[in-house]
Amino acid sequence: MINFITNHEYTGCNIATLYEAGYDDSNEFATFNQVRKAWNLSGKELKGAKAAARLMTIVLKKDKEGKEKKVPKYFSVFELSELQAIVASNSGEHEIVGR
User: Fold this and answer.
1) Distances (CA, A) of 30 to 19, 57, 62, 64
2) 4 CB contacts (<8 Å, ≥6 apart)?
3) Rounded-to-integer distance, Cα 62 and Cα 22, Å
4) pTM of the predicted model as reported, rounded to 2 decimal places
5) Disulfide-capable partner of 34 in 5, 12, 53, 86 (CB 3.0 to 4.6 Å)?
6) Angle at 27 between CA 23 and CA 29, to 5 degrees
7) Tens digits of per-residue pLDDT, 9-56?
8) Listing from the earlier edge strand, what are the strands of the sheet with 2-3?
């Protein structure tokens, strides 16, 4: 399972989350903003897209005293073929081929 925009593989608990959502290794995902920017779309063209899963990454944040600490950051991902179908239906065109 990879992010089709960055080509990075998902790891750790994110893989388990995607498997539990019914996806397998052949599926590809990206965030809403990644897709919007990469495909040069408006939010309107992505209207109706449903997130495949909510994943997590660990980021460093500074607390009030300026100390860095690790905190979870959650983000939603969308599956490639589902996005292609939504964009095609919203634009009245055939399915987008490729990335």
Assistant:
1) 16, 14, 27, 33
2) 28, 29, 30, 80, 99
3) 36
4) 0.84
5) 5
6) 100
7) 999 999 999 999 999 999 999 999 999 999 998 888 899 999 999 999
8) 2-3, 28-30, 68-79, 53-62
